[in-house]
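[step 3/7] inverse_fold.run input=structure_tokens len=395
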């Protein structure tokens, strides 16, 4: 019993170092995908470092929701890969410990990952999403041009559709501007101008779009009339404060809702439309992703034990393959559940059952000292891919 407790503590401590490294590396990689946009805000729009720090802080829970299960899985795999390659697994077996006797520290470690991920999905992500939306409104109120993008239709302001072909940040000019204004009842105004400028009254949250040498095409649906006007200078005023008030009054996004609010939204839905299915997906995902820590750890445990030093890289590749399979099943479940092809609960929970089933089979094979024959599976997959490639070339 004493030997078992010492071994459990030893294995548990060994998993913390690779877990910490995995969290740091994957967080850095996820944040790198946002760095180009953040650098653009700082350089071109003079966004303060404080807002950048807040942006990173509010986006981290969404990343961590997926990073933690993967980090737990890799930490278990890397720990037992090292123990197996250094023959420590053989030494433990010679002292009377079975494979199942090495499982408790893995389950405890996975349980901690489950609790941490559950806290993030249930509380961290909704609150961070709401705070991020609030911060985005504040930033947009003081920097309206931060939301403008080239060759993209912008509908931030209600009743106004704005399209800009090119943004000259150096000279603060908007090149080739197209505007569709539907704010007047029964009338549509289409404004086309080769260039323009955006000037703000930040204290009033009002922005003036000053256009030069363009034309206005007006259509009155009620009177069935149309006319065209050429102008040298035209000013279009946009009230951002009004848009902020409307944004605050609007209903919460499903990612911002608590569990109780999601259930209330689902129960109050009159029809099973896209919003109904998406809300159910979010509800089940908040519980299924934390459980993935347990399912993926159960899979990584026998993979690490059976991968000897000669096939260490293959064990790591196999682990990444199974995580990719999990993510693929989760994505497919999201798409099919969103369209109502099958219940969202199946789409969100099926990947966990598949991974846990494979892990349990691998564990039983390892407990019986049988090989997992992963090489055979890999060879057959490669043969299948080669055959498909030849058929495609011949076709």
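[step 3/7] decode complete -> sequence:
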């Amino acid at each position: 019993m004493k030997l078992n407790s010492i071994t459990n503590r030893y294995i548990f401590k060994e998993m913390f170092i690779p877990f910490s490294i995995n969290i740091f590396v994957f967080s850095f990689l996820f944040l790198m995908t946002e760095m180009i946009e953040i650098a653009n805000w700082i350089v071109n729009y003079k966004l303060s470092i404080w807002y950048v720090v807040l942006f990173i802080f509010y986006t981290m829970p969404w990343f961590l929701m997926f990073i933690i299960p993967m980090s737990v899985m890799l930490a278990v795999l890397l720990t037992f890969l090292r123990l197996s390659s250094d023959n420590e697994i053989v030494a433990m077996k010679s002292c009377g410990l079975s494979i199942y006797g090495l499982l408790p520290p893995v389950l405890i470690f996975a349980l901690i990952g489950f609790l941490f991920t559950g806290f993030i999905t249930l509380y961290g992500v909704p609150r961070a999403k709401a705070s991020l939306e609030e911060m985005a409104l504040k930033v947009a109120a003081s920097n309206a041009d931060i939301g403008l993008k080239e060759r993209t239709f912008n509908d931030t302001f209600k009743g106004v559709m704005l399209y800009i072909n090119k943004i000259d940040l150096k000279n603060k000019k908007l090149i080739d501007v197209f505007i569709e204004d539907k704010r007047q009842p029964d009338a549509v105004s289409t404004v086309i101008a080769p260039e323009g400028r955006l000037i703000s009254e930040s204290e009033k949250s009002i922005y003036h779009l000053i256009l030069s040498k363009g034309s206005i095409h007006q259509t009155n649906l009620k009177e069935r009339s149309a006319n065209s006007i050429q102008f040298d200078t035209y000013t279009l005023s946009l009230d951002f404060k009004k848009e902020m008030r409307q944004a605050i009054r609007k209903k919460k996004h499903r990612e911002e809702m608590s569990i109780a609010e999601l259930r209330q939204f689902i129960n109050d839905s009159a029809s099973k439309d896209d919003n109904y299915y998406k809300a159910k997906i979010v509800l089940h995902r908040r519980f299924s992703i934390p459980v993935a820590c347990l399912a993926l750890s159960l899979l990584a445990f026998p993979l690490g034990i059976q991968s000897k030093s000669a096939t260490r890289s293959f064990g790591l590749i196999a682990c990444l393959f199974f995580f990719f399979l999990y993510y693929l099943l989760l994505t497919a479940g999201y798409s099919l559940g969103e369209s109502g092809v099958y219940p969202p609960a199946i789409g969100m929970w099926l990947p966990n059952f598949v991974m846990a089933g494979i892990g349990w089979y691998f564990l039983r094979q390892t407990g019986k000292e049988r090989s997992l024959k992963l090489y055979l599976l890999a060879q057959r997959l490669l043969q299948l891919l080669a055959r498909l490639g030849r058929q495609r070339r011949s076709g």
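[step 4/7] annotate
The chain has two domains: 2-139+263-387, 147-240.
Residues 21 and 297 are 17 Å apart (CA to CA).
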